[in-house]
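re: that chain from earlier
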Amino acid sequence: MATAFLFRGDELLLMRKSNSRIADRPFWSGLGGHVEASELNHPRSACLREIFEESGFAESDLSELRLRYLLLRIKGDEIRQQFVYFGTTARSDFVNSDEGELHWVRKEAVLGLPMSAIVRAMLAYDFERADPSGIRVGTITSGKDGAPLMQWAELNDPLVF
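^ sequence. v structure.
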C-alpha cells in the first residue's frame, strides 16, 4: 500500500469511506491504495498516482512529499506493508472519487474519527513528536490485554565500518 497525508496549514485532507471490505461502518483514512506490480520498487510513484486518482492533485500541487513511515502488520496469512508519505498543499479544492468523500479536517479533530488502529497510532505518534526527520517503522501487534500495541524503530542509514 502507498498512502498520503496532506496538510494545508492546521488541516489534514482525509477520506471518509463508507463502503469497504475492512470495516462495517464508515471510517477515515489518508489518500492511497495498492501499489501496482510496475510500482513495487517505486512506492512514491504509486502514492502520486493514488493522490491524483483520489483528489485530482498533481505532483506540482504538492510540496515536501516524503516518506515518513513504513507500517507493518499481519492480516491473515499476509504481512502487509504500507508506505506512508506526508506532504503539504496550498490547494483547498479537490475532485472526489468513487473511493470516498474528501474532507479537510482540523488536526485537533483527526484522532477522534473512526480509523484503523495502525493509522491512528501512527498519527498520534507523529502529532506528539512533530519531528519530520527520518523514516520510522511501525509494527502493530496485540498487547497482553488484547489492545493494539505499536512498536517503533527509526530506519537509519547503515553504519559503515
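Strands lie at 2-8, 11-17, 27-29, 31-33, 62-75, 78-89, 101-106, 135-142, 148-155.
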